[in-house]
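Suppose you are handed a protein chain with no further information: no name, no annotation, nothing but its sequence. What can you learn? This example shows the usual starting point.
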Amino acid sequence: MERRTIGAAALEVGAVGLGCMPMSWAYSASRRRGEESLRAVHRALDEGSTLLDTADMYGPFTNELLVGRVLKERRRDAFVSTKVGLLVGDQHIVANGRPGYVKRACDASLRRLQTDVIDLYQLHRADPEVPVEETWGALAELVQAGKVRALGLSAMGARSGRRPGARLHDTTIRQLERVQQVFPVSVVQAELSVWSREALDALLPWCAARGVGFLAAMPLGNGFLTGTLTPGEGFEPEDIRARHPRFTADMMAANQPIVAGLRRVARRIGPDVVPAQVALAWVLAQGRHVVPVPGAKQERWVAQNAGAAPLRLSAEDLAEVAGLPRAQGSWD
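A reasonable first move is to predict its three-dimensional structure. Written in structure tokens, the prediction is:
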């Protein structure tokens, strides 16, 4: 697979990563299979999808334990990214950015991941009770101690902290500018897909101008852009899509033209190309500093996603994707 070098620390990873969260968290519990997930992670490494993205809160903890079973055998093949800063309780999630907690959490993640060093350690969410510079200073000390190679900031909570009238990532950019004064940011992770393009407005250009890598989370629109979901089929109660406004039966039906457009482009490229690969190729085309991190828990989807790396969308393809209807249904 094509390799991409991203971030101030010159991190080299496969062009398409693997989001490990669905194996343990947030999606249908009845479809989780531990051994199947292990095979999926191994397949990702075989395909060259070296970046494995996890977090201590996924499970909680069980996702890191799963990834750790693979790292114990194949640490040299993998680039491991995990996150810190969120605590999971009964029916709630809270941020914790206290320096002492961050350092203890890192040690715990290292044990679960069965490794001596974390390649990329991301702040999952800034703690509103702790100046972000203090949290980032603790993360920088972990780099200096040799426990972490590079630091990143996750912008996945941007919608909840948005001010009325503000662009989605304005708060994230302010945080980034503050922590850059403490220690270099190597990577930012935020949602980017054909149906969620807000990062293109300011966040992606901010990263490009500063040599900061960009991990595109949910590049397949929580599975919608694969074209494999049926409107009205429903989701299990704990599945995040059961509460997402774009995944009501009406909105899924209304957004089918987006998938239809991806199918048209896929057919034009070749008979074996599928909508998911076009969606990932579009993300890859947004810049050499961009690495999509699609979530998957089965080997076949991992292999299919990896197959997007060599695709090159033509100017006609890119124009057609750019002209697709905007998604209906929003958190806002």
